Amino acid sequence: MNAPMEHALGALALPQPYVLFLGDTTIAGFAKTALGLKDWAPEKCVGELRLPGATVTTGLEALTPSEAAARGARALVIGVANQGGVIPPHWRASLIEALEAGLDLIAGMHMRLSDIPELADAAERFGRRLIDVRVPPARIPVGTGRKRSGKRLLTVGTDCALGKKYTALALARALERRGVDVDFRATGQTGIMIAGGGIPMDAVVSDFEAGAAELLSPDAAEDHWDVIEGQGAITHPSYAAVSLGLLHGSQPDVFVVCHEPGRTEMLGTAGYPLTSVERIVELTIALGSRTNPAIRCGGFAFNTSALGAAEAAELMARESERLGLPVADPIRGGSAFDALVASCLA
Amino acid sequence: MNAPMEHALGALALPQPYVLFLGDTTIAGFAKTALGLKDWAPEKCVGELRLPGATVTTGLEALTPSEAAARGARALVIGVANQGGVIPPHWRASLIEALEAGLDLIAGMHMRLSDIPELADAAERFGRRLIDVRVPPARIPVGTGRKRSGKRLLTVGTDCALGKKYTALALARALERRGVDVDFRATGQTGIMIAGGGIPMDAVVSDFEAGAAELLSPDAAEDHWDVIEGQGAITHPSYAAVSLGLLHGSQPDVFVVCHEPGRTEMLGTAGYPLTSVERIVELTIALGSRTNPAIRCGGFAFNTSALGAAEAAELMARESERLGLPVADPIRGGSAFDALVASCLA
C-alpha cells in the first residue's frame, strides 16, 4: 500500500521520507496536513521543524534541516496552512536552509512555491525541486470509459469535509490487514502527501476530469483493490462537477457514503440543505452505473465526533437497521467498522 | 442579443467586426467556425480571407487584411481548424499581415497563438492582441448556488456534437423575434465568437465549473431570458463533469434535450450506447432541481439532417406524441419549432 505511483503519474511521485514543517502555528486546525501525515504515514516522517512561537506539535522529534537530511529525509513538507494559503516571509529562511541541506520542498497551498523568487532562486542554486501538489500532471487524456481490470472502492459524501479521505485511508488499511492487495488513491493535497502520489482532482480542467480519474486507478490484478478518496458531493452546487468526473472515471464496484449526522447545510453555499444519505445512494447508483453497471453501496461512514460514544453507537445501529447496510465511524472502529469492511468486500 | 458581455467577463469580450480567415482549406467540415459565424453573425463579418488552394468559402467578399481594416474590421478570426488543431507555418505571413494592418487575432485552436514566437513578436511590434477563446477568464469564483434573477434556458443533449449550440442560437433568435429580451450565452469556441463573449466551459478547472456557469448568466430583469449553450451529456463517460457543473451553475428554468435520431453510440467512447431522451430528462431534473427546484423540460430538438423531410416530420410527430412535449428540428423550423418555443416560454 501507498507505494510511489507508477510511471504514468510520475509527475506527482513525491520524494520521501519527509520532515514536517509547522511554521509558528498555534492553531491545530491549520496543521491538518502535518497531523494527517503523522497519523497515516509515520514511517514516512523523520521528524518535525517548528519555528519559535509554535505551540502545535506532531509529537515527532524536533530536527533542524541538516539533522533531518542526516536521518534520510528527502523533502520538507509544509504541513501547515494559514489564512489565505500564503507562505509568510518569516518562514522563508528555514525553507531556504532546508533547500541548502539537500531537501526538496513540498507544499499544497494556494500560493505556489515557485512564485516566491527567493525560493525559486535558492532551489536553482542548490539543485533542489519545489513541488506543488495542487498542480495536476501535464497531458491528462480525455476519459474513454473503457472498463479496467481490478476492483475499486470510492468514498462519496453528503457534503465536503466530513471524512471521505479518512474513511478511504481507514478502509485501505483494514483491507491491507486482511491480506488484500490494496492501494489508497489520493485525490487531494493531504492524501497525496500521505500516499506519496495521486492527482489533485479539483485542480484538473473539467474536460479531463474523468480522464484524470481513469489515470489515477489503472488496470490491476483482478483481486487488487484501489480505495479512492472521494471529493465534494454529487449534489453540492459548487463542486458536483469534480464529484461526477471522479465517479465516472473511477468506475467503482463499491462506494461508501460518508456523512456527518447533525450537519444540516452544505459548506460554503447559500443555505443549501444537506442531501440525505439515501438520496446520495440513489444518485450515485443512477450516475455511476453508467461506467460500472455493477456499482453498489457497501455502507455508510458516519463522522460522529460531535457525539458521545453511547449516543453514536445507538444512532449508527438505528441507521444501519433503517438503511439495511452497515454504518460505522472509522475513527471509532469496532465491530461496526468490521461489518462495513466485510460488506465492501462481499 | 449578443451584446458584448458585461465587465465581469471582460477577459472574453471580443473585438468586432471580424474578417474570417479560411487558410487553404478544402474540407468544409474544418471551416465550421467560419461558416457558423457567417450563418449566425453575418453583421459581425466584413469579409473573408483565403489562401491559394482554398476551395471552401463562406460566400462573403474576399478581402486583404488592409481592405478588411478599411471596412472597419477589428479582428481576424481563424475560422478553420485542421487535423491536430495547429496553425501551419504557411498561414503565418497572412496572420502577421493582419496584425500589421491593425487587426487583433482571434483563435480557438489547441495551439495557442501566443505560443508561436513569430506571432507573439509581431503582435507586440504592432501593438495588437492575440486572443485565444479557449482560455477561460482569470479569477473565476467557486459557485455558491445563490438563486439569480431572470429566466434561463439550457440546451442539454444525449451526446456531444449533435446540435446544442445550433439549438440555443435558434431558440434565442426565435425569442428575440417574439420581442423577448434575450441573450445567447456561449460556452464553446464557435459560440463565443458568434456571441462576442462567453466562457469556454470545457477549459475551466473543475472546482470552478459551476462558478463559471454562474458568472456566465448573471442576475437579470425578471422577464429577461438567457439561452445557454449546453456541453457534453450528463451520461457521457468523458465529459459529464462539464455538463453537471454547467447544469448546476446555470440553474435553468427550462431545458431542451438535443438528440440525433439514429445515433447509437456516444462519440469518442469505448462503445457506450446513447442514453435515451427520457433518461436524460429524468437525470437532468434529478440533478438540476438541486439549484432550481422549478426546472422543467421544454421539449426536444432533433437533428434530423440524415433523414428526408417526410420521414423527419413523421418521426418527430410520433416522438412528440410519445413524449408529451414538442419535438422539432431547429434547422427545419416550421410549426413544430414554434410549438417548442411556445412550450419553453409557457
From TrEMBL, chains A, B:
InterPro entries: DgcN-like, DgcN-like_C, DgcN-like_N, P-loop_NTPase. Residues 142-335 form the D-glutamate N-acetyltransferase-like C-terminal domain. It comes from the Bacteria. Residues 59-136 form the D-glutamate N-acetyltransferase-like N-terminal domain. Gene3D superfamilies: NAD(P)-binding Rossmann-like Domain (3.40.50.720), P-loop containing nucleotide triphosphate hydrolases (3.40.50.300). This is DUF1611 domain-containing protein. It comes from Sphingomonas gei.
